[in-house]
Design a protein that fits this description.
The chain starts with a helix and ends with a strand. Helices cover 8% and strands 42% of the residues. By secondary structure, the protein is mainly beta.
Length: 378
């Protein structure tokens, strides 16, 4: 049995690297001129683009993925019924069928143990639960408004599984996973993860002409609302980098002015739910994004439906980016070293019985850290 589990884990890791086998080399300084407005005019809106599963971002971010799955009632193993697994590419299922995807999961949807180096993952869970396990022996369960901020640094393996906890009703999952780059000086720091529990994330609330506006301040500051501190080695830890992650909801027909940030920041707006959004006088269709100037204010107006918007902004790192699968470094030689180190050390190995561990169904929200710190949220 142990050998079978080991083979299954190796097969998954091989698939993971194969899926990301294309080497990406770029100095993340901006987008191409295609479909862009003449920058000599310094427009507020630089570029508009449709959104897919993986969202294009600007430096210091690497990309953002929006997961939305309408999972069925869970079975005894906290997965979907076996009959709903027929016709899927189990182990690499990214096509929506019956309203959901299994991703790299075989019994429970999700992402079994896989390595990272050189960047951070910020997992913003709107609905549903995520079970975390990693190569340092840490574990957790979080969701329904919680955020996990993980600095991979010199190297870490972790699993992110989506257990279907309810047997009585459907298990809807919605989350954003944001990849934030690290500067060269911090790419090999000690791995670390921090929980931003939903109840600790500040909400900026205002009423404009009788319409409600709410902004979850996940990173950065908005007027008097300041997000919990990020991990200590994050690009976000230095406030002069003006990094912000805001999740905005504007009531149907409502307006709100996005305040200006500091000069030199990159800012992207992702309109992920609603029928229409006006950026000043420019119409933005549902599931479209806009790269916008950060040093000017911008009026936002919702259409006939509530508008849901994600903002990613920050001062660019401005260093070369070389990405290969789950490793993000500055040079090809550093990528090769990451492969060598992973093959040699497995970034601490894998202390769990299987590649995609899930916690007991009855367990509430919690985080057990590698240093022995325990958080129980119920």
């Amino acid at each position: 049995m142990k050998n079978n589990k080991s083979k299954s884990r190796r097969s998954f890791i091989q698939k993971l690297f194969a899926a990301g086998s294309g080497m990406v080399l770029a100095a993340k300084t901006g987008f191409s001129a295609d479909n862009s407005i003449n920058m000599n005019e310094e427009p507020k809106i630089k570029r508009i683009k449709p959104l897919g599963f993986q969202w294009e971002t600007q430096d210091p971010f690497l990309f953002c993925v929006h997961h939305e799955d309408f999972f069925p009632k869970g079975n005894e193993n906290m997965g979907p019924p076996k009959e709903l697994l027929q016709g899927r590419h189990i182990g690499q299922d990214f096509m929506i069928k019956d309203g959901f995807r299994m991703y790299h999961g075989e019994t429970v949807p999700g992402f079994p143990g896989h390595p990272h180096r050189g960047f951070e993952t910020i997992t913003v869970v709107r609905k549903g639960m995520v079970d975390h396990s990693d190569s340092q022996g840490a574990s957790g369960r979080y969701g329904n408004g919680d955020v996990q901020w993980m600095t991979a640094g010199r190297g870490l393996q972790h699993a992110e599984m989506f257990p279907l906890l309810s047997k009585e009703k459907e298990n809807t999952m919605e989350l954003f996973q944001i990849w934030l780059n690290l500067p060269k000086k911090n790419k090999l720091v000690e791995p670390h993860f921090k929980m931003l529990w939903g109840e600790s994330i500040p909400n900026y609330k205002t009423d404009v002409n009788g319409k409600n506006v709410r902004v979850e301040v996940i990173a950065g500051k908005l007027e008097n609302e300041e997000a919990p501190a990020p991990p200590p080695n994050s690009w976000a830890a230095d406030k002069t980098n003006d990094l912000a992650i805001w999740n905005i909801k504007i009531e149907a027909g409502g307006t709100w002015t996005l305040p200006k940030a500091s000069s030199g920041v990159n800012r992207s707006l992702y309109f992920y739910k609603g029928d229409q959004l006006l950026l000043d006088e420019t119409k933005l269709a549902n599931y479209h994004a806009a790269d916008i100037r950060g040093d000017v204010a911008l009026a936002l107006k919702a259409g006939a439906e509530d508008a849901h918007i994600l903002i990613l902004q920050g001062k660019p790192i401005g260093e070369p980016v070389v990405q290969h699968g789950p490793f993000v470094m500055n040079t090809k030689e550093e990528i090769q070293q990451a492969f060598n180190d992973y093959q040699r050390t497995r970034f601490g190995g894998w202390p769990w019985e299987n590649p995609g561990p899930v916690h007991e169904r009855s367990k509430g929200r919690f985080a057990y850290h590698a240093d022995g710190t325990r958080e129980e949220k119920g």
